[in-house]
Amino acid sequence: MKIYIYILVFFAFIIQASKAQQLPQYTQYVFNNYLLNPAVTGIENYTDVKLGYRSQWTGLNGAPVTSFLTVNTPIGDNFINGDATAFPGGGGTNPSSRLYTQNYMASEPHHGIGFTLVTDKAGPITQTNVAATYAYHLGLAPKLNLAVGVAAGFNRISLNTSEITLGTAFDPAITNGDNSQWKPDLGIGAWLYSGDYYFGVSVQQLLKQNLYFSTTNTAVDVSKTVPHYFLTAGTKLYMSDDITLLPSVLIKQIQPVP
Predict the structure, then answer these.
(1) What is the pLDDT of residues 37-47, one digit of tens each?
(2) For the chain, where are the E strands, in sequence order?
């Protein structure tokens, strides 16, 4: 019973910590930490391709819908293991077994490159982010690695005025405006990892941008993008020789959200 209570408290905390943001929310982030941290680029010794789709609050008009495509690959393959979430591409040792951790070796220094395409629609606003990523991985100890990475690209924000019901015929905040804007985007991150745990910090939307949906540029209609700070961590808990739990945590800090 205590375990169930702890789980409920944990998820309640996560919901409170992530109740508002400008960027998409990912419920299954543990399967693709690359979406949150560019330092994960090239962490596996193979090309990793993932597609994802999330429909939140299905059935409600204007509910958020998010889809993504991510591709990343290492430059060089003179290493075997990734982090605690790894799934070796060539088979071999079960990554959820104790044996995988016992045989774990830090990777040789190598680079990683990647690409992300994320589209998020919430109500009349659609965001599309396109970015290239780079990371450098370095072994700090026989079973410990550190990676640092950067993501650079563009974010397109569009406003579909046909989905908006106005109180007056002409709202100065959106009338005759630039309803489709491209803005530069930058993110950075670091990833400390071994065979049975990982710890990461990252910042997305590092370049603050002013967004105007009208041509007046007055204070009433200005919108600003803000940085999103992420802290992620996870560790393996071995239940048997072949069964492992992987609890994880994600904390986001976004001003002015509490």
Answers:
(1) 999 999 998 99
(2) 48-55, 65-75, 110-122, 125-141, 144-159, 180-193, 197-204, 210-212, 222-224, 228-235, 237-238, 244-245, 248-253
